[in-house]
């Protein structure tokens, strides 16, 4: 069935964002993505020319304003906006962390969400419908040692979701967060390497800890997360708002 929704995804040229972009495109939607990585933007534009892809850093207000203005001129609005951009930030005891590393992590995760949601809220309130999806993490649901910048930012995303759901609900706009667990792929490989160095342990032990800490005893995939995004955008989820939906194989413990 052709949906023909207007879908915008930040950090949408690779990883979770690209998986969501491809899933919405397969569903018959128009899809636009922005991403700070020029190589990733070039790759998705070449691989999937149907997707509108633009280089823009979510922390750059001027770049994001231009990205959104172009879409508003061409599309007249948006039906689904996925605020997906985020970085893992540094790992280590808080007393050993650099302030600029902290600020960069919080900026990408929260400032980027603010700029994205501010535009989407204005457009969706005016049109009387829409869905905002914010990418948080299971780190936004549980405390996690030696990752305080990332955890704080992802808890902030859940808080923003709750606030915006209440703020925009009367206008017919839904707002939900998706909280992935350990997602198989290059980004998770980098996180494992970083945490292994910070904790002084073998990276295989860190990887084992992530998988054994979930009830399903495995990592999830980017496609699992994209499937949740599609569900939340479907008529079957029309009464779901203000929720933080975990896609993590059920986190039981941090090993």
UniProtKB/TrEMBL annotation:
<keyword id="KW-0560">Oxidoreductase</keyword>
<dbReference type="Pfam" id="PF13561">
    <property type="entry name" value="adh_short_C2"/>
</dbReference>
<dbReference type="InterPro" id="IPR002347">
    <property type="entry name" value="SDR_fam"/>
</dbReference>
<protein>
    <submittedName>
        <fullName>SDR family oxidoreductase</fullName>
    </submittedName>
</protein>
<comment type="similarity">
    <text>Belongs to the short-chain dehydrogenases/reductases (SDR) family.</text>
</comment>
<dbReference type="InterPro" id="IPR020904">
    <property type="entry name" value="Sc_DH/Rdtase_CS"/>
</dbReference>
<dbReference type="InterPro" id="IPR036291">
    <property type="entry name" value="NAD(P)-bd_dom_sf"/>
</dbReference>
